[in-house]
Structures are given as C-alpha cells and as structure tokens.
Amino acid sequence: MTKTSTRRGFMKGGLTAGAALATAGLTAPARAEGDPAITEIQDWNRYSGPGVDASPYGKPSDFEAHVVRRNVAWLTADPVSSVNFTPLHELDGIITPNGLCFERHHAGVAEVDPQKHRLMINGLVDTPLVFTMADLMRFPRENHVYFLECAANSGMEWRGAQLNGCQYTHGMVHCVMYTGVKLKHLLEEAGVKTAGKWVMPEGADASAMTRSIPLEKALDDCLVAFKMNGEALRPEQGYPLRLVVPGWEGNMWVKWLRRLEVGDEPWHAREETSKYTDLLADGKARRFTWVMDVKSVITSPSPQMPITHGKGRTVLTGLAWSGTGRIARVDVSLDGGRNWVTARLDGPSLPKALHRFYHEFDWDGSELFLQSRAIDEAGFVQPTKPELRAVRGANSIYHNNGIQTWHVATDGVVENVEIS
C-alpha cells in the first residue's frame, strides 16, 4: 500500500486518482446585479490620490504588504548568521524582485562605502592590482540572468517532511539579471602565472567569507557584479560588489567582494571543509560538490497558497532550474507520481536561470498529491527523495533536489507530505 507521511508524522493510506485533466470551461463569473464592488462608486473612483513625489522610490501596494521574506527563528541561534526566505508562492514569471531575494549572512549585512571599497587581485599573478569601483566601471559590461540557490535549500527535508510551505522548503533561491564585468577580464589584466590553478574570493564582511574556485570556472562565466535588475546591488546582496558563479552553490557567490587570490591548490577553508560538504551514510563526506542539480517545485497550489475557489478550473504553477543549463521539460503529477503529464513552460528559457511552468486542470474536489519533475538539457532527471537517499543517505543538509509532494485535501488545504 502506498503511504504518505506529513510533517506531523501521520500515516495515510491510499491515493485517489486525483483531478481530471482540463476538459471543461471556466467557472462562470459572478453576475453583476447586486454586487456592490461593481455597482457602487468606490473611494478610489471618487478622490484624487497621492502625487508623483509622494514616493520617490516606489514600493508595492499596501495590499501586498504580506509578500515579504520570512525567517524561521529556530533554524539558527542568531539572525546575524542566518537566513530568510523568498516568498516563491506569491511570485510569477522568473525574475525575483530585489526586495524579495532571500538573504543568507554569516556576520550580518556589511554597510560598505563604495568610495572606500577596493578589489585586490594578488597571489600567482604577474602584477598584483587594486581596483576602485570607478576602475571597474571602465571594463566592458555584460548582463546575464542567473538563479542563485543556497546549497542548504530544502536541507531540512532530508529526513522527511518538515516545513509547511514552499517559501520555507525551497525559498533559498532567487533569479535576477546581474550587470558586471567578466572575472576573466580582471584576471587577464593582472596576468595569471602558469602555476595558477585556483582562485580564492574573499568578502569584506566580518566573516571574511572565502571559497576555492577552479581557475577554469573563473575564466568561463564568473561575473564581478555591481547591479541586479538594473539597480545597484542591495546591501544584503553584497553592495557594492559581489561574485557571481553561475549554476554553483550560493556560498561561493562571495558578497562584498574585496580580494581575489590566485593559487596553485585549493585553500580548504572552513566553508568547504567543516561546512558545505555532503556527509554520506558511511560517514565519509563529499567535497567540492559545487553544481546545483536539476530541481523544481510547485509554488501554487502549495501550503501557503491553498485552493480557495472550490471545484473547477485550477492553475498549477511552479519553478524549475538546473546548474548545468536550461530546463528541457517539466512533468507534473496530480496523484503522487503514478501518472505524469508534461507541463507548459512559459517565458524566457535561459541557461542557469529559473524557468516558469504551468498546468491547467479541472479539480473535481478529490484529494491530490501534487509533484513536479524537472529534466534539463543535459538529460539529468530530478530524482525522488527515496532515490536520492539510496545514494546519499540522510545525513546531509546540502544539495537536496528531491521531488517535493504537496497534499491537497478535499477542502483545498495543502500540506507538505512525503510519498513512501
């Protein structure tokens, strides 16, 4: 018998066939007669609103005040070294608004004066260099849309369903357009010596974040970025300068970037030895597992976005991404993986960026077990959680790209569960 386990630990037997595929038309809208929302003049029809100078830097409507990043207080001992989560369930498209991009800090937000900020390149180079922000602005600029995912995204779900909402299970990911200078141009300016094989970026915050990056990756697609979605980086995203390492774990995207050292071997820093390694079932740890594997999640319906309209036409939507390139296909299941249909990808399809998918269907009011399964252009298929644990065990908190299951009850309430 197929069983499901929720974050509360209950066991539930059997799956229904789920909802029928989309065959009927939309539910008829409410009739206008007697509806005061359309028959009566509202205040916004009657009075003039604020002028153009009322909000010099625009902000969302007050009616959208609930759409914010959120923390889970018990995840960490102190918010200075913690994380908050992108409200994926409230968003659409593939671009994350700057004010909603998740935060992960190791020593809080560094407030850096760009006039005093410097970027140094040293180590195995012909000419050690120091760049001001003005210097960097004179190099050729490029614009690229990339996702950024923390390696610990979905990390609490390794041993079973825990956090009830895709904001908390998958919200350590965002996707923006970065503007900056290719790292290879700066390294070429300094001249990398023949013995140089690795690069170590260092942050200017109190944690002095450092990671080892192979020179091959540094010369490929890494970007030294100073803008996101057209405006300057937000302080919490590394203002005035951060490293962009497309497709690789977010801890390597060093914020408040101040130094790049070239060396002949990795540095084995704290963040790549005691942290950001994958502890296997036999006690051994995988190291240097940089690439973020193919992954997806249904953002609506989901625990924070239940079905409230009752039976009838329902729009399922979600996000898919892969550190190896574009998403080729996303399949969705309404019955816990027994049957799959191909979802509709919509919007830009860019390498190492988020992809938006949709599936419209008619809900008949029966319970559903929603899943999505992404396949990337390299042929990698998102695994089930049992498949992932069979290879990796359940000791890790990093690189969990297992298929997520949402249970939709007959009243439309949605809960995080796991199919076993």
TrEMBL record:
Residues 106-267 form the Oxidoreductase molybdopterin-binding domain. Residues 288-404 form the Moybdenum cofactor oxidoreductase dimerisation domain. It comes from the Bacteria. Keywords: Metal-binding, Molybdenum, Oxidoreductase, Signal. CDD domains: bact_SoxC_Moco. The keyword Cytoplasm does not apply. Its cofactor is Mo-molybdopterin. InterPro entries: Ig_E-set, MoCF_OxRdtse_dimer, Mopterin_OxRdtase_euk, OxRdtase_Mopterin-bd_dom, OxRdtase_Mopterin-bd_sf, Sulfite_DH_SoxC, TAT_signal. Pfam families: Mo-co_dimer, Oxidored_molyb. Residues 1-32 form the signal peptide. GO terms for biological process: sulfur compound metabolic process. GO terms for molecular function: heme binding; molybdenum ion binding; molybdopterin cofactor binding; sulfite oxidase activity. The keyword Methyltransferase does not apply. This is Sulfite oxidase molybdopterin subunit. It comes from Nitratireductor pacificus pht-3B.
